[in-house]
Amino acid sequence: MLHDDATVSSVPNTSNDSQPLTPWFDKATRVAFVFLLGGCIGWLYEVFICAPLNGVPIDLGHGGLGIPFLMIYAVGSVVIELAFGLGRPQPHAYIQFLESTILATALEYASGLTMLHLLQVQTWDYRIPGWDFLVTSDGLICLRASLTFGVFGLLQLRGVSRLYEYVARKNFRTLAVVIWVLVAVVVLALLNAFVFHVIDTGGTWH
């Protein structure tokens, strides 16, 4: 009898609340989770780390969305997840670091060039003390920023993915509801910012 009880207690939780409706919905929710965390962590990084380090006053309205969120970090996190994450087998950490560094740098440079030449605005410029080592002539990318993004990518692929899997196993449906409601909040904030033309995609220094 004790053997039977032990066998039953070792069976993983397979209740409906802990199971995604379909595999694609699980992947979509994982990407949305990464999107939210990337945007929030990017905002915290620029407001409370980059700004003080560079003598810039802390601006809680940074980003122009009215919420603590930076879209460029969110998009970068999604791109890294789609390219290297989604539950794929993990290579060595240094490979993930290099992959994240290269992909994030390419994304940042493409975004900066698009805004600079199509929209005629430059949201960030790394040609300042502390960031100007191996910086491009237009100030859009530098070694220090690229390495930072590589670290963020590594933490995402190693830590955020595990966090998502842990919480999803507890109660996937509750997690999914919270995530998609927050995504809707971000979308509404983004639409509002576009209407009033106050959006800032990122960057502490103008």
Walk me through what this model shows.
The chain is 64% helix and 0% strand. It has one domain (29-57, 65-196). The protein is built from five helices and no strands. Helix 2 (23-53) packs across helix 5. The longest helix has 54 residues, at 143-196. It has helices spanning 2-9, 23-53, 71-84, 93-117, 143-196. It is mainly alpha-helical and 206 residues long. The protein is globular and about 55 Å long. The protein starts with a helix and ends in a 10-residue tail after the last helix.
Report the helical percentage. 55-70%
What is the helix tally? 5
Q: Average pLDDT, to the nearest integer?
A: 85
Structural class: mainly alpha
Which tags fit this structure?
about 210 residues, mainly alpha, 5 helices, disordered N terminus
SSE topology:
Elements: H1 2-9, H2 23-53, H3 71-84, H4 93-117, H5 143-196
Helix pairs in contact: 2-3, 2-5, 3-4, 4-5
Tell me briefly what this model is.
This protein is mostly helical and 206 residues long. Helices cover 64% and strands 0% of the residues. It is built from five helices and no strands.
